[in-house]
Amino acid sequence: MLYARGLTGDNLLLMVTDGCPGLAEIQTVYPDVKHQRCWVHKMRNILEKVRKRDYDAVKAGAQAIYRAENRRKAEQAFRTFRTRWQHLYASMVRQLEKDLSELLTFFDFPQHLWWKLRTTNVIERCFVEVRRRTRPMVCFVNVASVDRIICAIFNGLNENSEWENRTLRVFTQAA
Description:
The chain is mainly α. It is 57% helix and 5% strand. The longest helix has 18 residues, at 143-160. The model is unreliable at 162-175 (pLDDT under 50).
């Protein structure tokens, strides 16, 4: 769909997805683009499988992975996590291990961007704002009116949020 709308991917460096299998398939269209899985979504998936008594310890162990100072230390934190939780939560640990490579892609980028690149929060914030602004309108005259509203919302987010400015601009130009 994105490719058909003109997104050739020539300048696309990274895709951040929530783990939806269909979104992972986008790499067949853009094979040279790096893929980052969202840590927020992964943490939700991990923690929903954990007993209440283990919740805080599992959460801290998983956070140690993505808060590591580099990829090597993140992989080391994962090995510690695996050793600690393998016997109680084998399937959860296996799933984390399977996705680990894509969860650590953000380490390939400059360190000051890591906290933004490891989640889908930037784009999800846009979607929340679009829903908040368009729901009260109930209906639209035509597709062009929807496009105008959405573009106005994205442009407003670009102007009002300095830290997200470049990320949103790239997203809105691609969409």
